Amino acid sequence: MTLLRESYLYHLWLTLCAVYEDSAIHRVLKAAGGWCNRQIDESRVLRPLCREGVVARAWPDSCLCRLLTALVNLPGQLLHKLYNALPLTFEDSFFARLVFEMGDETAIAQFWCICLLWIIPFTYWNNAYSLLGFAALLVLFHAGAMHRKDLRLDLANIGFYPLVLFGAMFLAVFFSYAPSLSLRFLFYHISAALCVLVTVSAVRCTEDLKRLTVGGAVCVAVSGAYGIVQRIQGVEVSRSTVDLRVNAGMPGRVESYFDNANTFAEVLILLLPLVLALILCSRRLFSKLVASGVFVVGIAALGMTYSRASWVGMACAMVVLVFLWKPKLIPAFAVLCCLAVPFLPTTIWNRILTIANPADSSTASRIPLLKAAIEVIRSRPLWGAGLGTAAPQAYISEWNLYHADFPYVHSHNFYLEVWVEAGLLGVVGFVASMLWNIKRAAHTVRHCADSTARTITCAAAAALCGAMVCGLADYLWNYPRVMCIFWFVFAVALAGVKICRTEGKETP
What we know:
This protein has about 500 residues and is mainly α. It is about 70% helix and about 0% strand. The chain has 25 helices and no strands. The longest helix is centred in the last third of the chain and has 33 residues, at about 415-445.
């Protein structure tokens, strides 16, 4: 590290940064950024869009929030009463004190949990692992709450709209076209709900938030390295996912240990912005170098997936991250992107050109899928066909709504598929949850001093934006493990906002 700090390139970089700080370009960009912020704050059109709505503001103090908070914390309250009744018995027990200490550090346990869960190969994966893992974390959290009255599950910061969405999932099973097929999918959503509940409640400081972000980076490092090894060993081209007529010369698509290239790419667009946040907020040079290496590995693996929707989603996530973190860097970021275009591999550039090519069978196959989904919505607009992909498949097959050579798996559109599965209430709750969380995170980071929590919050919000854009052409919840990662990033954004506000870093 000393050699690097004493090197010519390091001193050249410091000199260039000092010149830039004193340059007219920096002053112009800073003034332009300040003008944009004033326009947003003073705009009659944008002001209502940027502030929290009436429902969101009223939720923490509402009777429903207090009632639900009391219910989910009932086990912890009862355990705390038991502890107060027998304090000496518990304090004299080594194992009781050990469990209490572990419960206090649930965020650390969650770090190890996600590291283990997200690196299990697909051939050994069971969706019950997520449910068991987060249920165990919930039990551990209650164990910590047994001897601490202030350690309670936090529904106030989770918000009203996510609860509406999860409530719609239960209704989707009840009103399902095939309830027996939908029931098992409900457990996947329960796993996701537990992930959000535990993450938001267990994160109490910046170190907890950063530790969970590192957990996501471990997944990127292991899966990305495995994907690169796959490319070196050689991947057979799958004719079911690649039209060789318009993608001539394209190699096989890397899928790492996620069984599907699109699934692997979706994991990367959700977690790579968090890795970039680690680069930006790490104080030690060694940590920055490690995080940078993980990011490079992840980006390389993302390119090898040849997933076009994920590429667009990742580009959107990077734009949003730069805009939220340092808006004045947008021009420099745009120039850098333009300069990077000539260096793209030919196969990636040709793949990008096929995005809107109707001759590509992958693109053309989405039309009958979308038509079938729209027909389901027309026939069952309020309740949908039922939770999960199995019930809509049964409904579409029964009513002969899909006509194509490829089997119907899902609609390849996030929003339509949520509507098809969970009905109108589900899609409204889903869109409202995403918009509320992203808007809340954006508002907080705009009125917050620079900090690690602010940077991670920017990254999590940007990842959600990228996922929403990718969702225009794919369904990110097709694999339950990806669904859990999606809600983990959602929870990281919520926890980041909580930390920014509770640590007093938000300014009026």
